[in-house]
Design a protein that fits this description.
Blueprint: H1 25-46, H2 48-58, H3 62-66, H4 72-75, H5 83-104, H6 106-130, H7 132-135, H8 143-156, E1 161-164, E2 168-171, H9 172-188, H10 197-214, H11 247-265, H12 272-287
Antiparallel strand pairs: 1-2
């Protein structure tokens, strides 16, 4: 029964993050960042005056805001201070962006990402006006939006896993909590100039606001696992056991809903929990 379906064959049964290249809003963001980085590096090498003019116009700064350069809240997110800065942000965007986009959709992810980056810039510049010697320098980079993606994924699936340093699996709720604590600490106790910790914190707060307040969507239509939060309900419902009370209940209440979701959104939309249910059902059908 289940074994006859194409999406239950073992070669296709893998994490969507490693399912091969596909164009998405995450990949569009990375491509735009790459194009801007290459053009800026060319200008830096062959047209230093032009590079400086673009940097002063597009990097986020208190002077720019005072002159009415409000577009800097968007453009600073696509500028980077060097190859290492660019690579670190783009690798993080690749992993986190695809995870969030698979759950809430590309347009929502894009809107939340850019709004988180802008919110981080707003917090950074507000503090820059209050403490200009500490927060008043120019700010560039995608890290505010990337931190927003981390917080968003933690809000949706706190027990999901990400790779710390791209090698060590860690539950996302712990990683997001640690990132928020570091950002808050170095916002209250400023470190050396060059790290926009306030922007990171602002990005995380904005993405949390998006997930919990701006579009607390009926996640069942998107992932089949998350539900609209109710005021008196616990934030994380207890997981149901893998073994159902009866074969009929299992097939009707769990497997059929998952198969409908695959038909509507593709197998890449499944969560780890849903994959475990399908695998359990496949083994049960094989034995019977």
């Amino acid at each position: 029964m289940l074994d006859d379906r194409d999406y239950m064959r073992q070669p296709e049964y893998r994490d969507p993050m490693f399912s091969g290249f596909r164009w998405s809003w995450t990949m569009v963001l990375i491509a735009v960042n790459l194009a801007v980085f290459v053009l800026m590096e060319i200008n830096k090498a062959y047209n230093p005056d032009g590079f400086l003019k673009i940097f002063q116009t597009c990097a986020l700064s208190n002077d720019g805001v005072l002159h009415g350069y409000v577009w800097q809240y968007l453009t600073f997110q696509f500028l980077h201070a060097g190859g290492g800065h660019f690579a670190g942000n783009m690798i993080s965007l690749f992993f986190l962006g695809r995870l969030v986009e698979d759950r809430i959709g590309g347009k929502r992810m894009l809107l939340m990402y850019l709004a988180s980056g802008a919110a981080g810039g707003v917090l950074q510049t507000v503090l820059g006006f209050v403490f200009p010697s500490v927060f008043g320098g120019p700010v560039v980079g995608a890290s505010a939006g990337v931190c927003g993606l981390l917080a968003a994924f933690a809000a949706m699936e706190p027990d999901g896993q990400v790779l710390l340093f791209y090698m060590i699996p860690v539950r996302v709720k712990y990683l997001a909590f640690a990132a928020a604590v570091v950002a808050l600490f170095y916002t209250v106790v400023p470190a050396a100039p060059g790290y926009a910790h306030a922007a990171h914190l602002g990005g995380m707060l904005m993405s949390w606001l998006f997930i919990r307040r701006i579009f607390p969507a009926d996640w069942s239509k998107l992932t089949g696992t998350l539900r609209r939060a109710e005021k008196k309900q616990p934030r994380r419902p207890q997981a149901e056991p893998l073994e159902p009370k009866s074969d009929t209940d299992f097939l009707q209440n769990q497997v059929d809903a998952i198969l409908d979701k695959i038909s509507a959104h593709g197998i890449q939309s499944l969560t780890t929990r849903e994959r475990e249910i399908l695998e359990s059902a496949r083994k049960k059908m094989t034995k019977s």
